[in-house]
Amino acid sequence: MRLRGRVGSLLEVGTGFHPELTGRENIYLNGAILGMRRHEIGQKFDQIVQFAEVEQFLDTPVKRYSSGMYVRLAFAVAAHLEPEILIVDEVLAVGDMGFQRKCMARMHDVGRSGCTVLFVSHNMPAIESLCDRAVLLDGGRVVGDGPVKDMIREYHRTVLAPQEGDGVALADRHGPTRRQKVYQAATLLDEHGEPTNFIPLGGQFHLRLDLDAAQPLDPVDMTIGIDDTLGQRLLSLLPPRRNPVVSRLDGAARIELRVERFPLAPGEYWIKLGMDCAGVEIDEIERVLHFSVTDADAFGEGHGIHRGVCVAPSQWTCRPLAAAPVEPTHA
Predict the structure, then answer these.
(1) Longest Cα–Cα distance in the chain
(2) pTM check: above 0.70
(3) Strand order in the sheet with 205-217
(4) Is residue 167 predicted with pLDDT exceeding 90?
(5) Is residue 58's pLDDT more than 70?
(6) By the 8 A CB rule, do 285 and 221 touch?
């Protein structure tokens, strides 16, 4: 490896902090360990303190700090290095949400200043926000090198690949709500029809269900529930009640369910299956399939900050309003 320029690293925030020293003293100590000269630390001292938001406790020994205060101060010192090459390893997930946004903004500023940043992380939105090139590693070996979006897509395919083969077998699942074991298997499929455990934001939700009714069931009502990790129902998918294809079952059958633009925001979800016949519950299975919704440019208009449960396309317009006429003044 050949290095040209001053190298700084954010590998383990807080390295070199002494618990008996105050926050003020540790700023100088930590800065020196990271390669900053004393006059550099002095010039940036106020910026570091303001960034860390610990002004009130600057002369308190850091052993009295909460873990969040400790990490914020350590990151603030490291973030104000001015190297030509900066190596960052999974340290941006510190503090609360507000401080994390501040960390991300600081890293953007560092990158725009002309510094070369080598950023190692499993946080895909952070990588996509900060980087213009990505290298995918597996077991210490390079398995991909290219545009960020392509490497993130490949990472998701690798890490979130289904572990159950072609689907989840349900025939052997037991429970008091399974009066008849109609559901036999469930498989979540990607856009190519291959088993998957993740859906990009706004992508297609494609669920395949294998059924087997030992006796004719008519009429049948099926419910596909999407729950969060706490078991709270977020979305229900129901077949058309008057569709004879899915309202009557007799023997083995396969059902394909598609939602072209899945509306749930990035997160972790579970699929629950339910079935009634003539108003009587005959088969219900909790936590059938676990899947993730990953961040993506869902509507071709760039990424946003997704809060809440759902994300929906919307149309925005803006037009200038005519300025109000100015009344003439008289002397």
Answers:
(1) 96
(2) no
(3) 168-169, 183-189, 205-217, 249-259
(4) no
(5) yes
(6) no
